[in-house]
Amino acid sequence: MFKSVRGNAIKHVKARLLFIFSTIALISSFLVFFPFSMYLVLNEDNQIAQHLVSFKQIATKHYTLEQNDFAQLSPNVSAYYNQEALPDRIKKLIPLAENDITRHRSFFSDGFVVFHSSFTDLQGKQIPLYLTIDARAMEFGDDGWDVLLLISFALMIFLITFLRFSLRRVFDGLMSPITELSHQLQHNPNDNFAVSDRSIDELQTLTRHLNEYKQMKERLAKQELMFAKYASHELKTPIAIVLGAANLQGMKDDPVFQAKQRERILIAATNMHATVEVLLNIVKQENANEANAMRTVSENEISQDKFRTKLSDGVELRFLIEPDTQTNMPEPVLHMIIKNLVNNAIRFTPKGRITVHIDSNAVSVTDTGCGLIGNTETEHGLGLLIVRRLCQSYGWEFELRQNPEQGCTAELNLLPISN
């Protein structure tokens, strides 16, 4: 593929636009100037013909007085009363129509106009009459015509130049915000985009959307980094357990010891499998068809003893699961949500109480710890990012709020199904 010589940058577009409009202006000026000039020439030619016809009565009276074959009626008009007295250039046009105007090369310097008529003298004799005038005898003259053309041409050039200047100013005014945005995008990509308040509304809207997309991109990049850290953290522990148990198996041949290591490997692999499934559901959104499938929540599916081993002294953990509770979240998903929320509450509750309440429409974890501090997506644990994504996948709304008295509450509410 060959690159086009004419680029698509703003300066190239402006140059093409100015060239196109200058060409249009030049053609338009010519189309106006040429018909107008032709109208002046034709009108001048008609005026000369009418001027020539107006000398008929004068020529008739002159013949009555002098009865010559030729008479110079004015500096420009000549009268002939005999066909033989006509100059050779007029004789070549005979016969001429009577009472009619005959033009010969009337638009050229050697052209002339002839008016042929007749009249009756005092003796009753029919006398022919030929009135002639040069085609350019009464025009402005060569110097005047050149001046008129020069003035017209200068006016046309002035109008084209003024049009180019005006068009350039308008184009620069329209394109300057886009040029400014392009410069900011190339040289200051980390700053917010801004245009003048005088810019058109569409460009201001575009600027706002660019800033929103920039913030969204930064937020998504931050979330992806947090997601990667969380996935790494969740997978490192079971992998370490599997590797450690596998190495220990080679140290002893005791059947009881071997069975214990196999059990550790099996539990770690099962937990890792559940974690991978949940993470894949978040990334691939494969759970879209399962969002409406309900199941009954069992008290045994949540291992409360694992959480209690992490509690500080003086912290009480209570689980309240309503009877016949149903949810659309699979067991690994619900377990990961509870684990993340409880671990987050344990982290910020050095003493007091943590209460987990689960029913068909809501899941809440309430603590009496230090409450919300800093950015909830970073300070309160990477697990909250996983909770938010799982809630979005299964149609739940997640909220983390400060308690009126002490601590905070992490709550999930099932959104109503839209028809």
Automatic annotation (TrEMBL):
Catalytic activity: ATP + protein L-histidine = ADP + protein N-phospho-L-histidine
Topology with respect to the bilayer: Multi-pass membrane protein
Keyword annotations from UniProtKB, A to Z: ATP-binding, Cell membrane, Kinase, Membrane, Nucleotide-binding, Transferase, Transmembrane, Transmembrane helix
SMART domains the record matches: HATPase_c (SM00387), HisKA (SM00388)
The protein's Enzyme Commission number: 2.7.13.3
Residues covered by the Histidine kinase domain: 230-418
Organism superkingdom: Bacteria
GO cellular component: plasma membrane
Pfam families per record: HATPase_c, HisKA
Keyword Protein transport: no
Record-linked SUPFAM superfamilies: ATPase domain of HSP90 chaperone/DNA topoisomerase II/histidine kinase, Homodimeric domain of signal transducing histidine kinase
Record carries keyword Transferase: yes
Transmembrane parts of this sequence: 20-42, 147-167
GO molecular function, one term: phosphorelay sensor kinase activity
Main enzyme class: transferase
Major location category of this protein: membrane
Compartments, as annotated in UniProt: Cell membrane
PROSITE patterns named in the record: HIS_KIN
Listed PANTHER family: SENSOR PROTEIN CREC, SENSOR PROTEIN RSTB
Protein name (Swiss-Prot/TrEMBL): histidine kinase
